[in-house]
């Protein structure tokens, strides 16, 4: 089944060879507190320790290195909720290319400013990822820039899949892998890698309760548009594209389940990561912990939860830890 999909296990292994030395092989540690709660061993894949603070560097680096020199010289452009933009800005700079990152006004300022610091041209337009993508399309059409999408591209998915290779290499007996789910680049890549090596391992996508575009699309049987709303897991926002060519089919065919989490559950995951695991993670990076704390994961172990990103506004993080952060859609904006 995996070989018929847009990204194969061999594609992911080729990506691993291509990006070796340019991204970190992040550590995986066992969590005593979560293991006690779940009744089975729980391991945390600390991908938020990646150079740019999230898994996105894997896919961005593989995509940039897969471009010809001529295409890199034209300039690279992408829409982003923040982490892809930061990763692409970094990867482009390393290869001597110029990146333009288009974001909506929902992207936190800490992520926008970091992208600027890395030398990228930033465009903040509209109030949704779809509107940011419209600006990307305009720049491709008018200025001839080369688009590197945040998720729906074989080279991006293959790069993200290298994370799955590391998980199975470190823990071949993994029974369940918990993956943050947005546009599906990470989930598709990790699932292709994990199931390509260990078909019995379950891969479960985790996302926020409101504005979950991939979940709505999977339920509808085709890509659909959803309203983008503010969330502690801001990196999981945005649509999957009505013309999605890669990640929808891979998530449909490879994911064993998709679980939704409330804002309160995501906040609890962030608090637990800090208080018990000594890890600072953004909302999207805490969804695996959140699902375990909420008792939403059923089945045997060992379990691996991917902590996907650390690019959180620290003032917001402190409010979450202190319990003073208004929860989107519940008590606050």
TrEMBL record:
<feature type="domain" description="Tryptophan synthase beta chain-like PALP">
    <location>
        <begin position="23"/>
        <end position="309"/>
    </location>
</feature>
<dbReference type="InterPro" id="IPR014333">
    <property type="entry name" value="Ectoine_EutB"/>
</dbReference>
<dbReference type="InterPro" id="IPR050147">
    <property type="entry name" value="Ser/Thr_Dehydratase"/>
</dbReference>
<protein>
    <submittedName>
        <fullName>Hydroxyectoine utilization dehydratase EutB</fullName>
        <ecNumber>4.3.1.19</ecNumber>
    </submittedName>
</protein>
<dbReference type="InterPro" id="IPR036052">
    <property type="entry name" value="TrpB-like_PALP_sf"/>
</dbReference>
<dbReference type="InterPro" id="IPR000634">
    <property type="entry name" value="Ser/Thr_deHydtase_PyrdxlP-BS"/>
</dbReference>
<keyword id="KW-0663">Pyridoxal phosphate</keyword>
<dbReference type="GO" id="GO:0004794">
    <property type="term" value="F:threonine deaminase activity"/>
</dbReference>
<keyword id="KW-0456">Lyase</keyword>
<dbReference type="Pfam" id="PF00291">
    <property type="entry name" value="PALP"/>
</dbReference>
<keyword id="KW-0614">Plasmid</keyword>
<dbReference type="InterPro" id="IPR001926">
    <property type="entry name" value="TrpB-like_PALP"/>
</dbReference>
